[in-house]
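Workshop exercise sheet. Pairs work together: one partner reads the sequence aloud, the other fills in the structure field after running the prediction. Swap roles for the next sheet.
Pair: D.N. / O.F.
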Amino acid sequence: MLVPLVGAGLGVAMFLTAWLAADAPGVGLVMLAIMLGYAALMRFGQRFESVQVLSQDPPLDERHALIQLHALRAAYCAVLGVALFGFFWEIARGAPGAFTLVAAVGGATHLLATVILRRRL
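Structure field:
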């Protein structure tokens, strides 16, 4: 129950932020709808194995752990690709910005996590 409630709360917070801070209630409604859809899926979709894999921590078995590992790798590669593309785009335009920060934090975190996990595992 906690995940759907937090998802709905984040959706409301994103809607209010987009509406009050950016004067863009349409964008806020889209973000709210996405978060409410996610919350509904997590609440009412527990009979499906894919949803169970998302909501189990720790994973139920080795197969679920492997699925989570592969999903995390795919998401990481997607975010890394967008961050690097945005970084090069910003550098080419001569104005480093948010993508530069995301790429720097992501790279530093990856290196630090690799060093820490190498010593622990």
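Discussion prompt: Helices lie at 2-20, 25-44, 49-55, 62-93, 98-120. What would you look at next?
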